[in-house]
Write a structure and sequence with these properties.
The protein has 192 residues and is α/β, with parallel strands linked by helices. It has a single domain (5-176), classed as Rossmann fold (3-Layer(aba) Sandwich), CATH 3.40.50. It has helices spanning 18-32, 60-68, 86-94, 97-100, 117-129, 156-171, 182-186; strands spanning 5-10, 36-41, 72-78, 104-110, 133-141, 148-149, 152-153. The longest helix has 16 residues, at 156-171. It is an enzyme of class 1 (oxidoreductase).
């Protein structure tokens, strides 16, 4: 086992979530490379709608502890109205620079229809504002209902792409971070 810890945060609250299946695959590849893993299922956490006057509501401390423990984080979300889910946004609002700064982040989006690029772009922007280091490789799963048979991928190329994401999260977990981004300098977050 190496000293890398990879955490996945699933932005889907559906019981039969393709996002969760894909994240589990990426984590299994990371584990095969010797990393320890943790899948943060937001259904299991009590996270009320974020209120900056109550940053420690519900299970916020548990979420932040699990994210802070990560060398790499993979954020996964289904496409909701061309972006990522409110559940994932809410979870990210409970976190800040202390939890993501200089952390390697991988991105995964799952779409019911066409290629889910905008979701990935939005997540990349948020991670840059948190001063995370987002790996260039990202995984997108379009037309998700036709891509799985139970927990198994039907398209080997998509399975490989998701697996590569898990591998990159281990390979780049300890990369030297870039200097702070303009977005992170100008965005203190949550101070309105």
């Amino acid at each position: 086992m190496n000293d890398t810890h990879v955490v996945a945060i699933c932005g889907s609250l559906r019981d039969a979530s393709f996002t969760r299946i894909a994240l589990d695959h990426a984590l299994s590849v990371a584990a095969d490379l010797g990393a320890s893993t943790d899948h943060v299922d937001l259904r299991d956490l009590d996270l009320p709608v974020f209120d900056p006057d109550d940053r420690d509501a519900g299970d916020a401390d548990e979420l932040r502890e699990r994210v802070t423990a990560a060398d790499s984080v993979i954020l996964g979300s289904p496409v909701y109205h061309g972006s990522y889910t409110g559940a994932l946004k809410n979870a990210l609002d409970y976190c800040g620079f202390d939890h993501f700064e200089h952390t390697t982040v991988g991105l995964l989006a799952v779409g019911g229809g066409a290629f889910p690029v905008t979701t990935l772009e939005h997540l990349r922007s948020v991670c840059r504002a948190l001063n995370a280091w987002v790996i260039p490789h990202q995984a997108a799963i379009p037309s998700a209902r036709s891509q799985f048979d139970g927990d198994a991928f039907l398209d080997e190329k998509i399975e490989e792409r998701v697996g590569t994401l898990g591998r990159r999260l281990v390979e780049y977990a300890h990369i030297e971070p870039d200097p702070n981004t303009v977005e992170s300098i100008e965005n203190v977050g949550g101070d309105d």
